[in-house]
Design brief:
Strand order of the largest sheet: 2-1-3-5-6-4
Order of helices and strands: EHEHEHEHEEHEHEHEHEHEHEHH
Distance between the termini: 38 Å
Number of strands: 12
Radius of gyration: 19 Å
Shape: globular
Strand content: 15-25%
Structural class: alpha/beta
Helix content: 40-55%
Length: 289
């Protein structure tokens, strides 16, 4: 069966929880675009075959979520500089020219922090917790905002060092101090605090302790968890209890989706409106749960 010319999906495993179909349906409605967007549960060992078959049947593009972002980057015949830096892709475009990969995660978090939260990254000290795919996808876009310093902390220090080394030329170009810190340095140096703390680890999903001491915060810090909903609540409560501004990653989800939509359709959707609507929807669902 051949798909319609305007068919998109989000590929992941698991994927049932994804809000992407609702987001893109709303984007399409508000911009007058005709498209279909669905969830696709992909076998853990079957991403490449599934994506190629989707493209062969007429699919125009897809979002890619865990655990397939690295494979998405490898599958592409061409890719953005963001993908080359991160080694991971969350957006694929299928055309007669092949498969193009982009990573809109970093653009999404920057847009949410600077536009929606009203916090400027330029000149700030940023702590990035984690060095996996989520952190890698965000780091390049954070560097482009020209903070004063970005410190990367990861449970496995060597992985943080590798991520920093990979982005060192870009950081030098933008005159950003970029370093990998041992977690113990945060715990022993109580003067080591930051303007923006971003949790890109899996600690929220696992229900684990916050991977940083409270001393990294100050009264005006923005503490940002890339997760949203119940998964982010422990981190948000921790930040709020220490006087920081706490924010979850729902805005990042909507803003990265807006970047993907614009890439596919050539139209920029009203992401702020859709974010407000989605947050209200989630609150209504929580009240009736």
């Amino acid at each position: 069966m051949t798909l319609s010319a305007d068919h998109y999906c989000v590929m992941g495993n698991p994927v049932a929880h994804s809000r992407s179909p609702w987001i893109h349906a709303r984007f399409a409605e508000l911009t007058g675009q005709a498209l279909n967007y669905e969830r696709a549960l992909v076998p853990l060992d079957g991403f490449t075959a599934f994506a190629q078959d989707f493209a062969r049947r007429g699919g125009k593009g897809c979002n890619v979520t865990v655990p397939f972002k690295l494979q998405a980057a490898e599958l592409a015949s061409s890719a953005s500089e963001r993908v080359r830096l991160a080694g991971a892709a969350n957006t694929l475009v299928f055309s007669a020219d092949g498969i193009y990969a982009d990573n809109t995660d970093g653009l999404g978090i920057v847009a949410d922090i600077t536009r929606n939260a009203g916090v400027q990254i330029a000149g700030c000290d940023v702590l990035l917790l984690g060095a996996g795919g989520a952190a890698a996808g965000a780091l390049g876009s954070l560097i482009e905002q020209k903070p004063r310093r970005i410190a990367v902390v990861n449970r496995t220090h060597a992985r943080a060092e590798a991520l920093v080394e990979q982005h060192a030329p870009m950081a030098s170009l933008h005159k950003v101090e970029l370093l990998a810190l041992e977690k113990s340095a945060l715990e022993t140096d109580l003067t080591q605090n930051f303007d923006i703390i971003i949790n890109a680890t899996a600690s929220s999903l696992a229900g684990a302790d916050v991977p940083a001491p409270a001393s990294v915060l100050h009264a005006r810090s923005l503490a940002y968890d890339m997760m949203y909903g119940p998964a982010a609540q422990n981190f948000l409560d921790w930040a709020s209890s220490h006087g920081a501004l706490a924010r979850d990653g729902l805005g990042m989800l909507v803003e990265q989706a807006a970047e993907s939509f614009a890439l596919w359709r050539g139209v920029r959707p009203p992401s702020a409106q859709v974010l407000d609507e989605l947050r209200a929807l989630l609150q209504t669902e929580a009240r009736h749960a």
